[in-house]
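HUMAN: Ready with one sample?

ASSISTANT:
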Amino acid sequence: MGDTIASSVDAYLEYLKYSRGSSNHTVVNYAVDLSQFSEFLESLDVKCPAEIRHTHVRSFLREVVGYGYARSSAARKLSSIKGWTSFLKERGEISSDPASGVRGPRLPKKLPRAITSEEVTRLIEEGPSGKYATRDRTILEILYGCGLRVAEAASLKWEQVDLDERWIRVRGKGDKERMVPMGRCAVEALSNWRMSLDMDEPFVFPGEKGGPLAARTLHRVVTRAARRVGLVEVTPHVLRHSFATHMLERGASLRVLQELLGHESLVTTQRYLKVTAEQLKKSYIRAHPRAGNGGEGFEGDYDSVCT
């Protein structure tokens, strides 16, 4: 590895650590990625940053993928290289950025993750604990029972909630409103939580210093409850995905789901149609009259166990 390239990489890592305040984990990842790229350049007899061309960057990515690295890893390495070359250009060490315009490998689209209805029941019934258990259970009921975004739940006011008619008037993205119905479990949770609050409190989930509870606090409520019942990587967004997936599994139409979720495009809602082979098999066995269960329906129905 040429000294000029080595010194410029070291300077960039120092910049990340001390000027940008990047974490040690981030700096280590950049160091590994740029070390690999530097060794690749050395094998091509490229001795200084000014000699780097966009073809070198593309060849490196092809070699990384061909060696067996995941496409996501190759994309991260490209991001590291682009950060470094942009830094070099800003410092005037190179006249043009060789990584600019280089596209990373196309990443596979991840399907929305959902947990099972049984896991949802365990999360809501056993997850909340301590002095805020009633509040936390209500948060979980609303996020899953109504499919709200975490910001929508955090900013919710009592004037938007009709417990008698079982409706919530949700203000979503772009300040657009939609009406979302509530199930029995959500209504019961909200009613119990309402009785513990000052009747003049405007927010459903008030913060300790006035105003609404922060969205990041709702996020912590979910992750903390999930850890207590042995679930990992469960977030408010996972509960929203679970709401959508379970609705479709039980026969809701895409158009209805689009309205409930507040999606602008039906294409966004259609992601939930991509179910796994195992889901297809289970749905078939449970629903078809001559497949095994004789159309008995789904087991562990959530609404039947919320009392």
